[in-house]
Amino acid sequence: MIVESNNPPVNALGHAVRKGLVEAIEAAEADEAVKAVVIACAGQTFFAGADVSEFGTPKAFEAPMLPQVVDRIEACTKPVVAAIHGTALGGGLEVALSCHYRVAVPSAKLGTPEVKLGILPGAGGTQRLPRVAGVEKALEMCATGNQVSAKQASDFGLVDRLIEGDLLPHAVAYAEEVRDIRPLPKSSERQDRVEGVADSVFDDFRKANARKFRGFDAPEANIQAVKVATQKPYGEGVLEERRLFMELMSGKQAKAQQYFFFAERKAAKIDDIPDDTRPRDIRRVGVIGAGTMGGGISMNFLSAGIPVTIVEMSQDALDRGTGVVRKNYEASAAKGRFTGEQVQQAMGNLNPTLDFDALAECDLIIEAVYENMDVKKEVFGRLDKIAKQGAILASNTSYLNVNEIAASTSRPQDVVGLHFFSPANIMKLLEVVRGDKTAPDVLLTAMQLAKRIRKVAVVAGVCHGFIGNRMLMPRQVEATKLLLEGASPEQVDRVHVEFGMPMGPFQMADLAGVDIGWHRDPNRIENVRDALCAIDRWGQKKGAGFYDYDERRQPSPSPKVQQIIEDFAAQQGVERREITDQEIIERTIYTMVNEGAKILEEGMAQRASDIDVVWVYGYGWPVYKGGPMFWADNYEKLDTIVAGLKRNEERMGDDASFSQLLLDKAEKGEKFTR
Ligand code: 3H9
Fold first, then answer.
1. How buried is residue 266: exposed, middle or buried, by Cβ count under 10 Å (0-12/13-18/19+)?
2. Omega prior to 8 cis, within 30 of 0
3. Segments of 243-338 assigned E as strands
């Protein structure tokens, strides 16, 4: 008997599907003619997990719940075969694990991504997976949420057979092969792969991933749950799994991470473009500038199999740029992220040239030249003359006015901002900057293309710094003032790192380059930054910035910088005092929330959750705190934020300007996010 779920788009295991599965198993058991069962899914994928939209609603608790479903499947007296295509994720993999056999097409992926939702596999997955796949694989899959390919899964025993060709008929044939084998293999009863596992396996895993897991609750709970499988029989293990699951589920981190799951998907939607808008066809991309940014941008398209024409002004710069792209690919290949063949293919799709006119054949042209309005206008003016009709002309500017850039062409409707974050081949965020005249189909194309190159795109309006960098500015202003008032770069950075950010404002400045945006006149010293730049302290690249660096780029506090700060404070008559960590939070992070609220009220972001997506993917805001707007709503509360900002209003002086939206929402007890 074939039991097929058809619950688009991803066959999530909502209540109706769970009920249907149990009823089907019972019907199969009651029907003597049925000798074996195949569980399969219609559409693009096998079950992608529990229905996350049911979480926190009564539906999630309506019987049969997933743990009951999987137990019922495993208890079936006839063999049950899972036929997997697409992705078997979370509860979907738990269903497959409760089947007696698993077959899959080679393109299928399997995984337990619950950890990314702040939880753990709560339907026996932490107990069955190690029993079937071995403890090390289960640890890796549960605690990181990384998927494995069906091929890998078959290598370590999670998939019993790879199916080349049509899945369903082969799965049925497989079921016929195994129909008489008794006893039925039940994953909950296996002990061979969970016996005699040393504690060091878990300790070593924790150590190896300490950086990645810092601040998160769920990875440790996943580790503990898998460990239980090595210590206790299945029945006791699932009870412990349930306890840990409920504990995580009721915590703040799970709420934040589940909110973020939907925030990320919502970001792809543009609220106000006509339904019948169709994307433009993008077959070849042009990139102007083969510097770090241009090279990184090109790699995104090359990796997705889209040919790139990259243009530079001199052969030297072109060779250097292509060399860096090749080196990056080779480094990724060495880490196993690409095969040699893929690298060859990507490089073969790269057309480096000095001939600007070669861009005429491109459907999308991205400018990644020096961040200066006159230079950009000149480039777009030239592009206007040679680009083919209907080509999309994009600027990778991170601050400049996209409307002004668009006005230097005769086709502003084709112009859009595509703000990639550095390193552009790695960072997931793409701000799609919508000019006043950007055509709906240009916008739609940009959003869809982003998905093709595996970026998370967020639409931003035209304003200085768009969403991310605009919010960074008040943070930087206050952080710098705090230095003069008595904080050290180390203290400010520590507060941010303890908050969960990957680094603080001064570590970030040293990494990006203290000299970014510097006027380049060593005699004009108006602030601490100018003073550092004037003495060549440009950050990590010079071995000195806000910190001193050794040969291994390890930072240490700099007495020289401290002196510069104190001299400046004295010169400006700033009285130095002890700064509390709380004040740092209020002056840097609360100000970001305030700026986020202004961005929202000006309509520069479509929704508060988009701002959160920008900060998580662009700046490493800890996803377990949801993003600045979610955090403001749920961790800190808006009235606390307003009170904190008011407390510091005098010190912030002219830089304190409140968002009316923030004030209103705080007063009414409303939230930015839902
Ligand atoms: C779990 O299983 C817990 C259990 O262990 C224990 C329980 C007791 N639920 O991503 P896409 C929607 S936790 C509800 O754009 P793709 C999504 O919102 C779950 N909805 O497609 C979107 O809706 P819309 C563990 C879901 O092709 C639409 O489907 N599983 C779910 O790029 C398309 O999604 C996971 O965490 C869901 N589980 O990628 C897997 N999944 O169109 C999460 C998706 O309205 N899902 N939607 O915006 C994924 O990783 C990807 O969606 C997938 C497809 C790879 C499947």
1. middle
2. no
3. 285-288, 308-311
CATH, residue 440: 3.40.50.720
CB burial string 549-566: b at 16+ within 10 A, e below: beeeeebeebeebeebbe
Is residue 451 domain-shared with residue 493, that is, in the same domain? no
Instruction: Choose one of 571, 601, 625: the last residue of a domain.
Output: 571
Q: Is residue 43 included in any domain, yes or no?
A: yes
Tokens of 629: 């707007």
Parent domain of 503: 487-571
Closest to 150 measured CA to CA, from 210, 103, 198: 103
Residue 42: count other Cβ atoms within 10 Å of its Cβ.
12
Of the residues 23, 29, 74, 94, only one is catalytic, namely: 94
pLDDT beyond 90 at 674: no
- List, in order, residues 6 or more apart from 637 with CB less than 8 Å away: none
Q: In this model, does residue 655 exceed pLDDT 90? A: no
Query: Are 347 and 244 part of one and the same domain?
Result: no
- Looking at the structure, do residues 211 and 118 belong to the same domain, yes or no? yes
Q: Which tokens sit at 114? A: 């619950």
Which amino acid would we find at residue 547?
Y
26 is catalytic: no
Alpha helical stretches, state H, 268-371: 292-303, 315-334, 340-348
- Give the domain CATH number at 182: 3.90.226.10
Q: Which atom of ligand 1 is nearest to the CA of 269?
A: 48
Residue 50, beta-bridge partner list: 13
Which two tokens mark 374?
């006159």
Query: Is the CB–ligand 1 distance for residue 249 below 6 Å?
Result: no
AA letter at 674 = R
Alpha-carbon torsion, ordered 635, 638, 644, 645, to 10 deg: 130
Q: Is 545 in the pocket of ligand 1 (CB under 6 A)?
A: no
Nearest to 433 by CA among 442, 425, 424, 77: 442
Q: Would you call 114 a catalytic residue per the annotation?
A: yes
Structure tokens at 7: 């619950």
For residue 192, the 8-state DSSP code is T
Question: ipTM of this predicted complex?
Answer: 0.99
Nearest-CA residue for ligand 1 atom 19 is 49
Do the beta carbons of residue 509 and residue 527 sit within 8 Å? no
Q: Is residue 405 part of a domain?
A: yes
Mean predicted lDDT score pLDDT of the chain: 96
Q: Does ligand 1 come within 6 angstroms of the Cβ of 118? A: no
Q: Compute, in angstroms, the gap from residue 49 CA to the centroid of ligand 1.
A: 7
Considering the entire predicted model, what is its pTM?
0.95
* Residue 541 DSSP label: G
For residue 632, being part of any structural domain is answered with no
Q: Which amino acid belongs to residue 321?
A: G
For 373-388, how does the pLDDT look when each residue is reduced to its tens digit (9 = 90+)?
A: 999 999 999 999 999 9
Q: What is the tally of structural domains in the chain?
A: 3
302 and 367 inside one domain: yes
pLDDT tens profile 309-364: 999 999 999 999 999 999 999 999 999 888 999 999 999 999 999 999 999 999 99
* Active-site annotation holder among 74, 114, 241, 312: 114
Residue 500 sits in a domain whose CATH number is 1.10.1040.50
Does the beta carbon of 121 lie inside 6 Å of ligand 1? yes
669: β partners: none
